[in-house]
Amino acid sequence: MKELEDLALECGERRGQVCSLKDLEEFRVEFLGRKGRLAQAMLVLPGMSAEDKPAAGRKANEVKTALTELIGERERELAAAEAGAGLSRL
Question: Is 41 in contact with 4 (CB distance < 8 Å)?
C-alpha cells in the first residue's frame, strides 16, 4: 500500500518541524488519532481482496509502530530540551 508508505515518509520528514510538546500532540493526533491519517488510510482494508488484506494489515501495523516510535523519540528529545532549558535558567 503506497499510501501507507507515503504516510510514514511524510511523518518522518515533518517530525523535525515539531518544536514543542504541544505541537507534538497535535502531530500525533493528525497521524495516529481516531480520525487521523492512518485511520483514514486503513478504511480501504475491508474492501480489499482476501489475498491482499493480510499483507496490507501487516503493513498498516508496521507503519503504526514506526509512527509511534518516531513520535516517542521526538517526545523524549523535546522533553530533554525543555528540561535543559529549565536548568539553564537557574
Answer: yes
User: What pTM was computed for the model?
Assistant: 0.81
Q: How far is 14 from 90, CA to CA, in rounded Å?
A: 32
**Residue 89 pLDDT > 70, yes or no?**
no
Whose grid coordinates read 509511534? 68
CA–CA distances in Å: residue 83 to residues 17, 27, 28: 19, 21, 21
Query: Length of the chain, please?
Result: 90
Q: Give the whole-angstrom CA distance, residue 34 versus residue 21.
A: 20
Question: What are the Cα distances from residue 14, in Å, to 8, 18, 24?
Answer: 10, 7, 10
The rounded distance, in Å, linking the Cα atoms of 29 and 27 is 5
How confident is the model over 32-79, as pLDDT tens digits? 999 999 999 999 889 999 999 999 999 999 999 999 999 999 999 999
Q: Are 29 and 36 in contact (CB under 8 A)?
A: yes
